[in-house]
Amino acid sequence: MLITKLTLIFQLFDKKGTGYISADAIDLNAVHADVLLVFKPLLIEMETYQESLDQEEFVESATVLLKSLPISSKNLILDFGRKRA
Hints:
- The protein is mostly helical.
- It has helices at residues 2-13, 33-48, 55-67, 71-78, and strands at 20-22, 52-54.
């Protein structure tokens, strides 16, 4: 389930459909600000080192990042895309 959510988030970030995201090629408006805050360390690293990530690399890096964050951050990602009542 987590991989599915991370894949969806990657696809939203990759608005142009190139299969890669980078600091210069990412749609930050595609997700809510709370979600961006979860990924902030990863996004900063991409910008600092001028890296681009494909979907597999993003999912892998995001999974490692989420392991180091509080459960509330992981839950935010697991709840991503669910309609709220």
